[in-house]
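Obj.: predict assembly geometry.
Materials: sequence records (below).
Method: joint structure prediction, all chains together.
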Amino acid sequence: MKEGYYEEDSDFMPYYLLQKELKQKVISYNDIKGEVRYIAGADVAYNDATKKMVGALVVLDANTLQVVEQQVHEMEVTFPYVPGLFSFREVPPLVEAFKKLQTKPDLIICDAHGMAHPNGMGMATHLGLELDIPTIGCAKSWLVGIYDKSLLGLERGATQPMMWDSKIVGVALRTQDNVKPLFVSVGHRVDLQTAIDWVLKMSPSYRQPETTRQADHLVNSVMKERMEIDFMGDEAVEEPI
DNA sequence: GCGACAG
DNA sequence: ATCTTGTCGC
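Observations (raw structure tokens):
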């Protein structure tokens, strides 16, 4: 962890220390066994009213990009949103959703950072370690890392390395011409170039990879269903008079 | 010159 | 993340 990111007396210190321990186990070289046939997207949605969250994993065929299987898991929100400790909030429901999958993915693309994180332990990395599955961090917005915005080309495929703590921790990647870049980094058991290649391959027509889009749609629809059910439940008890 | 804080 | 209308472009 680069100094100056969190208070030494933070209540969350135990979690930062746990990240430092976990970081020792991260594999940042290509450790994908065999051919990548299935790639999953992961996402989580929240409901402030009920304090519930829904995590989803959607498995796509790596070549056709068609959905092969999808699983969700709903549970109570157990950890607050703290930049840098995001994984402690979202990994639990994703691990549960993963357990339900019949088709285990060869790779998971997360809607969050991997090593491009103050402690080198973003959600993608944490999830990868937890599941022992190769993961890629693919976030929509910047968290850490210095890069030269003026050197980032406007065309799809353009990249600029992001430096943090004197190391390249990821890249700003343009997945479509003239769109805001995505921030790609190693999660676990993949190298940066492999991560970039897969994100591009999974993003043929939109800014976000198809994996993330599918997972996003799923959690939103499930969340909407849940809210309607809750609403009907309230009506049912109010109505009889 | 300063600063950027995932979802 | 989530809350939300109109609006720009293919």
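Conclusions so far: The radius of gyration of chain A is 19 Å.
To do: check interface contacts against the pulldown list.
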